[in-house]
Amino acid sequence: MLSAARRTVAFFRKRANHCLPNVVRVLTFVLPLLALGLLTGVTTVLFGFGGGFVVVPVVYYVTRAQADPGVDPMAVAVATATAVMVVNALSATLSQRRAGRLRRDYVWPLAAYIGVGAVLGSLVATVVGGGAQRVLFIAYIAVTLLDTLLRKGFLTHDPDAEPRLLGRRTTTAGGVAIGAVTSFLGVGGSVMTVPLLRRRGLPMGEATAMANPLSLPVAVAGTAVYALFGEGGGAGPGHLGSVDLVAGALLLAGSLPAIAVTRRLVGRVPDRVHAVSYVVLLAVVLAAFLFV
């Protein structure tokens, strides 16, 4: 009787030891990515981020906790964020187009020059490595946050003012710069295009709507480069170059339903609330990288 009880206890202990790693993985990897995928979908529609600002810090910390010592978590985070942006930005672009919020004069040819810069920025990122990317990511968020708070034209909007078109220099050299910086950091074009379009006199609803198609060149070019030349996670299974396919799939499983729901709410958000929310999200992401 006693031996049977011992065998029973040993059996359940063995099963528990076998299942525990899977439970821990679900709690520390699967659920956080699904939950943050939902937030990614919301920010894609409301702010045009495509997921970059949200995905990079999340995948960075998840990868750092799970990966082998030789894996560069920041390189994987930037590459995965860029890949997720392809699907999110495309989905949001189609939704915004159906809603009539896109203006061709602000999207083209700026998108083409952003694509050129995105290829250059992604290639540089594969050489520089994740350490420099992390520092520059934090610095860029801080600069963008201060710019939106201290410089006039972002938090306030005059609905009677006529929006100004982009100049040739802004479209060409500015487009290349936007593509290079944002693809290097894996944050999509919105972090530069939304403030740019906002100060041209566009309401937040239209500025963030235009950010989605302007993020697509960054996402496509960056994903191609990171998949072909990235080495951050390429040595392990479930990776394509530096892109973590499993993490990306989980994030998309959360973000795509959120995009479908959130697109119905965009026109109902007051302009001032929309602008302040953009600034608050920047501050949250910066705090996450600095203090978590």
UniProtKB/TrEMBL annotation:
The record's subcellular location field reads: Cell membrane; Membrane
Going by the UniProt record, its keywords in alphabetical order are: Cell membrane, Membrane, Transmembrane, Transmembrane helix
Secretion signal span: none
**Record membrane topology:** Multi-pass membrane protein
Q: Name one GO cellular component term.
A: plasma membrane
Pfam families per the UniProt record, alphabetical: TauE (PF01925)
What's the domain of life for this entry? Bacteria
Which coarse location class describes where this protein primarily resides? membrane
Transmembrane parts of this sequence: 20-39, 74-94, 106-128, 174-197, 209-229, 241-261, 273-291
Q: Which PANTHER family match?
A: MEMBRANE TRANSPORTER PROTEIN MJ0441-RELATED, MEMBRANE TRANSPORTER PROTEIN YJNA-RELATED
Recorded family membership? Belongs to the 4-toluene sulfonate uptake permease (TSUP) (TC 2.A.102) family.
Q: Protein name, please? A: Probable membrane transporter protein
Q: Specify the species.
A: Nocardiopsis dassonvillei (strain ATCC 23218 / DSM 43111 / CIP 107115 / JCM 7437 / KCTC 9190 / NBRC 14626 / NCTC 10488 / NRRL B-5397 / IMRU 509)
